[in-house]
């Protein structure tokens, strides 16, 4: 099965004309069968919020949950948790409503650009995977060293050994802080594809006083590029049972349009989406 969606549901304004903020998730679920939940990166979400989102989405809807920043080493400053054990416990507890409702597609562990290939970082990966052993977990690198030619196959073999789902990326090739597109699954059940855009000039930092959110993911995939991804996804679907594709190129609001175009190109029909409100005028 091929599932296509977006990172987050709040910022895709072309979907929400006349929609109240509280109704955005229900509206989003009328277009896409999955979403990447990124608020979990900034703070461990209360179970009450998770239960609310479960209730607002169709029975077959699924969430890709981004791991809390303290897990992947992004956090700066003092932790809000007294220990790593408390942090993991809180994060895992927050996932229970999704697990119980069969709406957890996977947890996504995206490691930072400075997380390069060295022994101490491999040990970190093993520790994280052990802590999250009860969940399907995707792994995304941001440092090129993991996929340098001499290490590429060893990285993929390690991911298979430790039961990581490969998060395959489409992103600008902009030095060590970016990775190539490696079209190779590491799990026969699930593979994640994240389309970040190809804005090479904005990838490594903002310019002219703009924030990184305004430029890093500013990209509009053209028809040819989407057709290339259609072919790649079709090929990957023969190697893994379920493919989850999320568009993250939303600095300029292009993600929803690109995702809907790819759904149309691939002739995908999702029968269990939320009902859409009829536009009577």
From TrEMBL:
<protein>
    <submittedName>
        <fullName>Uncharacterized protein YecE (DUF72 family)</fullName>
    </submittedName>
</protein>
<dbReference type="Pfam" id="PF01904">
    <property type="entry name" value="DUF72"/>
</dbReference>
<dbReference type="InterPro" id="IPR036520">
    <property type="entry name" value="UPF0759_sf"/>
</dbReference>
<dbReference type="InterPro" id="IPR002763">
    <property type="entry name" value="DUF72"/>
</dbReference>
């Amino acid at each position: 099965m091929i599932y296509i969606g977006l990172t987050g549901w709040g910022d895709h304004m072309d979907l929400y004309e006349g929609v109240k903020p509280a109704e955005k998730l229900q509206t989003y679920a009328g277009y896409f069968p999955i979403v990447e939940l990124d608020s979990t990166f900034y703070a461990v979400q209360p179970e009450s919020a998770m239960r609310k989102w479960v209730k607002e989405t169709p029975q077959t809807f699924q969430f890709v949950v981004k791991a809390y920043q303290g897990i992947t080493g992004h956090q700066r400053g003092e932790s809000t948790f007294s220990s790593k054990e408390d942090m993991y416990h809180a994060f895992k507890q927050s996932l229970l409503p999704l697990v119980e409702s069969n709406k957890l597609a996977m947890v996504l562990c995206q490691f930072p650009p400075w997380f390069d290939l060295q022994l101490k970082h491999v040990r970190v990966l093993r520790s994280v995977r052990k802590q999250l052993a009860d969940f399907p977990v995707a792994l995304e690198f941001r440092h090129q060293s993991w996929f340098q030619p001499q290490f590429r196959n060893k990285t993929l073999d390690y991911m298979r050994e430790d039961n990581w789902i490969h998060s395959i990326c489409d992103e600008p090739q902009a030095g060590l802080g970016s990775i190539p597109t490696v079209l190779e699954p590491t799990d026969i059940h699930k593979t994640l594809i994240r389309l970040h855009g190809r804005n090479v000039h904005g990838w490594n930092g903002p310019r002219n006083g703009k924030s990184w959110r305004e430029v890093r993911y500013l990209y509009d995939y053209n028809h040819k590029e989407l057709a290339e991804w259609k072919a790649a996804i079709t090929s990957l679907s023969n190697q893994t049972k379920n493919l989850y594709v999320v568009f993250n190129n939303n600095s300029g609001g292009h993600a929803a349009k690109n995702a809907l175009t790819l759904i149309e190109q691939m002739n995908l029909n999702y029968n269990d989406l939320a009902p859409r409100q009829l536009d009577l005028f």
